[in-house]
Amino acid sequence: MKDNQTRIGIITSGGDAPGMNAVIRAVVRSAAHFEMRAYGIHAGFDGLFKNEIDEIHPDDVTGIIHRGGTILRTARCDEMMTEEGQAHAAEICKVMKFETVIVIGGDGSFRGAESLSRHGINVVGIPATIDLDMECTEYTIGFDTAVNTVANAIVRLRDTSSSHDRCSVVEVMGRNAGHLALWCGLASGADEVLIPEHPIDIKEVEEQILNERAKGKNHHLIVVAEGIGGSDKIAKELERALGIESRATILGHLQRGGMPTAIDRMHASVMGFMAVEAAKNKNANKIVIFRNGKHELISLEEAFAAKREYNHKLYQITKILAI
Ligand code: F6P
Question: What is the Å distance from ligand 1's center to 17 Cα?
Fold first, then answer.
């Protein structure tokens, strides 16, 4: 390695998402392809402040494409919320001679990236969150794995719920967005999906369950988005009102782990390559997105201004199929 080679920094920030390791691999190997030096910043922006930064070579990322989590580790960093912290972070990037920093994460991480760019550091963002709650892209790395993890957990819940003639109330992550809950509900044949994008009417849920009972169905599945919350209370209320045994299951952080699906690894590999290609072409302050079936680069401004229409049709179809 020559010391005059361009240096890029790689950081995973915010909540981890399956597929982050596949991105790291793609970034490190693409950097080698373009004769750039790649540096891993450990534990998110916290690690930047603590100077936990190491060069990563192509061999270091062998055997990680299928592993969940992030070998760089990650964190949510309060210091990056302050103007002073942001200026300090940019200063460290300059000392490290990073021509570009590639930030892998969700909305909050991209705010951190944007603040670095305001302080003169080139950044490229790669969307990775199980929540799919980013307006600028139709896909975020980790989403497909989380949908599959939840759908598989629901298969198990169905077994026990049907053995006991019960109603299962399953709470799914997603922060303030209902995408994960909606996809999982549709993919699992849920009777109802309660998401923040729709007003909740518990009486309607009760009627739906009673109608199903009348038709002979012995178990029921209600998927509740984290943004609605209170799954335990909902289960108790259903049991009280309907006399049907109900149990709440909060799936929690298991939704963030596990082997990334092939779809996540594919997006991770393409997006990782495109981010380094953008860095190579000095096409800075961009985000790699997936839109209309294609990966593309858009500016940070466009990304923050983007509005993606919520897919109401998925909700309608879930209801129609629940008859
Ligand atoms: O953004 C991913 C996510 O898992 C959300 O779905 C959830 O609200 C949040 O992170 C949980 O954060 P933490 O890992 O800090 O508990």
Answer: 10
Question: What are the residue boundaries of the structural domains of the chain, listed by start?
Answer: 7-142+260-305, 146-256
Is the Cβ atom of 227 under 6 angstroms away from ligand 1? Answer: no
- CATH T-level assignment (fold) for domain 146-256: Rossmann fold (3.40.50)
Q: Which CATH number is correct for 7-142+260-305, 3.30.70.2740, 3.40.50.450, 3.20.20.70, 1.10.3720.10?
A: 3.40.50.450
pLDDT higher than threshold 60 for residue 1? no
Give me the sheet containing 167-172, strands edge to edge: 192-194, 220-225, 167-172, 246-250
pLDDT tens across 140-181, in order?
999 999 999 999 999 999 999 999 999 999 999 999 999 999
- 17 Cα nearest atom in ligand 1: 2
Cα 22 to the chain's mean position, in Å?
14
Pairwise CA distance, residues 320 & 323, whole Å: 6
Q: How far is the CA of 226 from the centre of ligand 1 (A)?
A: 10
Name the residues annotated as catalytic: 131
Instruction: Report, as an integer, the average pLDDT of 184-188.
Output: 98
Whether the pLDDT of residue 269 is over 80: the answer is: yes
Ligand 1 atom 8: the closest Cα is on which residue? Answer: 175
Beta bridge partners of 299: 286
Q: Is 133 in the pocket of ligand 1 (CB under 6 A)?
A: no
